[in-house]
């Protein structure tokens, strides 16, 4: 079996590589470092604080933890209220249109029934005529 050989690395464009490195620095490395620095600072302040300060920071932390939940709940409540309003409007309008649809379906059904009866009528006449002829033949045989 042949061994799989990896292709030789191609030369990079030095301008785009330099731009990529600069973007990585400003878009990934620096924001990540600043976030880590903020978290470490908060951890040091929490560890060095007194009991009353800890309670104060705990209250602030609870506010920050509860706020996103409240916002998402408010958005969900607004969507639910809009859906309820739309459903009420639909219930008010729907009977008129469903009655019109029912009338149209009844008309369509009666037309289909008429067309079906017209399509079957010649067959039934032929069968009825055949049955009449058979019955007449039986009655003649009985009388003779």
Explain how this protein is built.
This protein is mainly α and 144 residues long. The protein has a domain at 49-143. Helices cover 89% and strands 0% of the residues. The chain is built from two helices and no strands. It has helices spanning 14-48, 51-143. The protein starts with 13 loop residues before the first helix and ends with a helix.
H/E order of the elements?
Answer: HH
Q: What structural category arises from helix and sheet content?
A: mainly alpha
- Considering DSSP H and I runs of 4 or more, what fraction of the residues is helical? over 70%
Oligomer: single chain
What does the overall shape look like? elongated
Number of helical regions: 2
The span between the termini is 102 Å
What percent strand? under 5%
> Which regions have little confidence, pLDDT < 50, spanning 5+ residues?
none
Overall radius of gyration = 43 Å
Total number of β-strand segments? 0
Mean pLDDT: 89
The major pleated sheet works out as: none
């Amino acid at each position: 079996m042949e061994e799989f050989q990896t292709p030789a690395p191609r030369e990079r464009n030095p301008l785009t590589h330099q731009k990529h490195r600069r973007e990585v620095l400003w878009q990934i490395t620096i924001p990540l470092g600043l976030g880590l620095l903020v978290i470490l600072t908060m951890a040091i302040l929490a560890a060095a604080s007194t009991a009353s300060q800890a309670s104060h920071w705990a209250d602030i932390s609870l506010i920050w933890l509860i706020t996103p939940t409240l916002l998402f709940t408010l958005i969900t409540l607004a969507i639910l209220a809009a859906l309820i309003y739309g459903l009420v409007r639909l219930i008010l309008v729907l009977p008129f249109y469903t009655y019109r649809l029912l009338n149209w379906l009844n008309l369509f059904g009666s037309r289909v029934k008429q067309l079906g009866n017209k399509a079957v009528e010649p067959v039934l006449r032929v069968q009825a005529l055949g049955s009449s002829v058979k019955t007449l033949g039986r009655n003649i045989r009985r009388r003779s």
